[in-house]
Amino acid sequence: MANRLGQVLVHSGVLTEQQVESVLQHQQESGKPFGVLCERLFGISPDLIEEAWALQYAGLTRTIDPATESFDPQALSLITRRQAWQFRVLPIRFDEDDLMVATTAQHVRRALRFASNVITVPVYLVLAEPLALGSALCKHYSLPGMTAKSVMDNDFERMLAAHGAKKVKV
């Protein structure tokens, strides 16, 4: 059975089982989203809820190897090199109307936020190992100074800072 948000929050030590039951009861009565009720009833920060949601999402999606995927040039054209590296996202192809985008488990939260705020088509995320994603980013979105290992560190943010560019928060 898939991890529910409440289970993720209990496992992370944010909520107790009793608190989850209370939220579920309030949810049944009000119809409000689980995360909103956690914030309202127990003062859980929206950032913690978002992080738990990202962990839940990562547990539900599949892992792919970008080296074995077929890429759609139209999908690749939806974002810039800067966006691909900054948000660790790699558009792969369309499945029906939905865009498959790869990221790493470490970057799910950032990728989800970017995809929902910037990409104008429905997106679903899949996971890739960091070096595999980095290699694919180097192939499809080459950027001077970036290597496959750059996915695992903050090279891109350091490059932006060195050139006086502001970090874009999404």
What is the rounded distance between the termini? 32 Å
The general outline is elongated
Going by helix content, strand content and strand pairing, the class is: mainly alpha
**What's the story with the biggest beta sheet?**
3 strands, mixed
User: Share of helix among residues?
Assistant: 40-55%
Approximate strand percentage: 5-15%
Number of alpha- plus pi-helical segments: 9
Residue windows where pLDDT falls under 50 for at least 5 positions: none
Oligomer: single chain
Q: Largest sheet, order of strands side by side?
A: 1-2-3
Total beta strand runs:
3
Short summary of the structure?
By secondary structure, the chain is mainly alpha-helical.
Structure in words:
Helix 2 crosses helix 3. This protein has a three-stranded mixed β-sheet, with helices on both faces. The protein is mostly helical. The protein has nine helices and three strands, in the order ααααααββαβαα. 50% of the residues lie in helices and 10% in strands. The mean pLDDT is 88.
What is the topology?
Layout: H1 5-11, H2 17-30, H3 34-42, H4 46-60, H5 73-76, H6 81-87, E1 90-95, E2 98-103, H7 108-117, E3 123-127, H8 130-140, H9 155-162
Parallel strand pairs: 2-3
Antiparallel strand pairs: 1-2
Keyword list:
single chain; 170 residues; mainly alpha; three-stranded mixed β-sheet; 9 helices; 3 strands; 50% helix; 10% strand
